[in-house]
Amino acid sequence: MTPLTPLAAVVLGIVLALWLAVAVWAIMNGTRMRREGTQAQGQFDRLSVLLGSAPAAPVIIHADGHVEASDRLAKWLGRDRVPAFLSELIAEDGGLEPEDAAALGREIGAAQRAGKSFALPIRGVGSARLLLVRGAPAGPMLASNGGVVLWIFDATDSQAEIETLKSTVEQLREALQAVAGLVEAAPFPMWHRTPDMRLSLVNTAYVHAVDGNSAREVIESGIELVETVGGITPQSAAAEAMAEDAPVARLVPATIDGERRTMRVVDVPLGAAGVAGFAMDQHELEQARVEHRRLEAAQRDLLDRLSAGVARFGPDRALRFWNQPFISLFGLHQDRLTDGPLFERVLDQMRDARRVPEHRDFPAWRSERREWFLSPDPLEENWLLADGTHLRVYAQPLPDGGLLLIFEDRTEQVQLSSARDTLLRVRTATFDNLFESIGVFSSDGRLSLWNSRFQTTWGLPEEMLAAHPRIDDLMQAVQSRLAKPQQVNLVRELVRAATLERKQRVGHVGFADGHIFEFAAIPLPDGNALFTMLDVTDSRRVEQILRDRNEALEQADKVKTAFVANMSYELRTPLTTISGFAEMMNAGYAGDLSDTAKDYVDGILQSTSRLSMMIDNVLDLTQGEAGTLSIEHAPVDLTALARQSAARIEQAADAKGIDLAVALQDSLGTVQGDARRIGQALDHLLENAVRYCGKGARVLLHGDGGPDKARLVVSDNGPGIGAKEQAAIFDPATRAEQARQGGKAGIGLPLARQLTEAHGGAFQLVSEPRQGTMAVIELPRG
Known about the structure:
It is built from 24 helices and 27 strands. It is an alpha+beta fold. The protein folds into 7 domains: about 1-55; about 55-155, Beta-Lactamase, CATH 3.30.450.20; about 185-280, 2-Layer Sandwich (Beta-Lactamase), CATH 3.30.450; about 300-415, Beta-Lactamase; about 435-535, Beta-Lactamase (2-Layer Sandwich); about 550-630, Helix Hairpins, CATH 1.10.287; about 630-780, 2-Layer Sandwich (Heat Shock Protein 90). A 5-stranded antiparallel β-sheet has the order 2-1-5-4-3, sandwiched between helices. A 5-stranded antiparallel β-sheet has the order 7-6-10-9-8. GO terms for molecular function: phosphorelay sensor kinase activity. Keywords: Coiled coil, Kinase, Membrane, Phosphoprotein, Transferase, Transmembrane, Transmembrane helix, Two-component regulatory system.
C-alpha cells in the first residue's frame, strides 16, 4: 500500500472534516425537521379537534362543484353521507327544503362569480333544526379560483333565543312606552337626571309646575322645581341619593301656581342611568295631619269630659287612652295604667276590684271578650255587677286593629225603668178601677184607651171597643141610650174641640134610664184627648135638696137678722127710758137720795151703759155677718186712738194687778177709716186680754207701720187659746150652740175681725195654751 503524502493527508483530512460537518449538520437539521414535523402534526391534530368541536361545520365548494365537508353536515341534513358535489346538496332529495336549496344554490353561484359573501338560514326537510349558512370566496390555500367556503351553524337554540329576545324587546318597548305615557300623564312632577345631575327628561306636570312653555325649554334652561333649602340644592340631593344608592326623600317648599306649597321630593338612583325623581304635593296632607291631630286632641278632651267610662286599646291590645270616669267606675289605680297594660291585664284589674260580672270560668269569659278586637261589627252587652250596678258596654273595633270601649252606668235608668213599669202597672190598675168612666181619643178621633166602667156605662161589646171605633161610630152606637139622642152631637163636638182645637170642655148628659153623667173632654200633652164621665145622679138629687135647704136657711138668716135689728131697736127704747130716769134721779130731780139710793142709781146707770154697749155689739156683729155694716172713711190718727183705748182699760187693768204697756212707734201714722169702729175693735181686744189674764200678767199694746199699711198688736202672757177654741170663737153656729147650753159666747174677737175686714184689713190671732195670745190688726193706708 502506498503511503499518503502529507498533502494528500491534509486534503483527505479536510474532506473527512467537511463530510463529518455535513453529516453533523444533516443529522441536526433532520432532528430539527422531525421535531418541527412532530410539532406541526400535533398542531394539526389540535386544529382538527378544535375544528371538530367548533359550533360551525366548514364546507369547501370547489370550482368544479366538488364538496369537502365534515360528517356533522350529513347528520344535520339527515343524510347517510356527506354530498360529494354541490348538485347533490341542492338537489330535491338533498335533504333541504326546496326553497332553501334553490336559494343556497343561487347564493353559492353569486359567491363563485362575484366573490360575494352571504348569510342564509336553511332548514332540512321535515326537521325543526335551523341552520345558518355563512359563505365567502375560498382562499387559494383552500381551493382554486372559484371555490367557496361555507360555515354552517346550528342556529336552532340561538334562533329560539333570538325570538325570545325579540319578544322580550317588544314587551320592554311596550312597557317603556306605557311607562313613558304614565310618566307623562302623571298629575305630579317627574323628571330624570343624567349622571352629571343635569335634567334630561321632565313630564308635563313638571313643565306646568315651573310655568314653562315646553319640556325642551325647561331642560335646556335647567329650571328646577324646588328651591335650595339649608344649602341643599336639588342637584346635591340627587347626588346624595346616587352616592348612598338608596332613595332620598325630603320635604321642601315650592311655589306652584303662585302659591307656596309643601312638596315631598324623592330622588331614586338608577345606577349608571342617572337619577329619577318625583314630587308629591303634601300641602293638603300636612294640613290634614294638623287637622287630624287637632281633632284627635279635641276627641280626647271630649271623651275625657264624658260621664261614661271610655278606654281605647291599640292594635297591640295595649291600653292607649282612658278617661277619669273609667278609673272611678272600675276602682282602678292610675299609676297601674300608665305603662299601657294589655287588654287581659286590664280585665284582671277590673276583676280584682270586683267590677266585672261574676263568672264560673273567668279565663274563658276573658278570651271571649278578646275576640272583640276581630269582630267586623260593633258589639253591645250589659254587665250586672255584684253591687247591683248595671253597665251598658259598647265595643267598637277600630280600623287600625284597636278597640274602643264605652261603659255607661245605667243603674239609675234601670231603677227608673223599673219604677216606671211599676207606676204604669199601678196606673193601669188604678185607671181600670176608677169610679169614673174614662176613654182616651187619639188626634184622628179614634178610641185608643178605655177602662171597664167606660164599657159598662155605654153598654158596648168588647169586640167593638177593640176595633178602636171613631167618635162618630161610637156615638151612633149609643144614641139610643140617651134621654135626648141629639146630645151625641154635643159629645162629638167636645171630643173634636179637645183633640183639634186643644180646648177643654165640660157638659152633662142624661140617659134614658134616668142616670145623669157629667163629662169633660181634656186635651192631653201628646195630642190625644181624655174623655171622663161621672155618674152624678145621686149628687144632683142631694144638690137639689141642699139647694132647697140653703134657700130656707138664707130666708131664716134674713128673718134672724131683721129680728135682731128690730129687737135691738126695740130694746133701746125702754133702756133709754131707764137710763134717763136714773140720770134724773142721780141729778136730784126726785129729791135728795140717800147714799144707798145713790149707789143703786149708779149701779143702774152702769148696767144700762153696759147693756147698751152689748146691744150695739150684737147689732154690729149681725150687720157685719149680713154685710150691711156701715163704715165711715176719714183720716184716723191711730196713735191717739190707741192711747185712748189704753186709757179706757187702764183702770180695769190696775184693779187686777195687770201691767199694761203701750209701745207706739212714729211709723204707725194715720189711715182712712172709721175711728169709732177701729177704737171699738181695739177696745174688745184689750178687754179680752185684761179679762182672761190673771194677776201679775202683762198686756202689751204695740203699734207700727209701713208705707202701705199700719199694724196694731195686742199681746199678753195669759193662759192662751187652743186650736179648737180658736175655731169655735169665729164660728157663729158654735157660738149659738154654746149660748143655748148656757156657756159664754164671747163676741169680742169675732166683732174685732169683722170691723178690721170691713176696713179692707186683715185680722190674725196667734195663741198657744200657756204661751199667751197675740191679736194683730193690719189696716191699709188708703
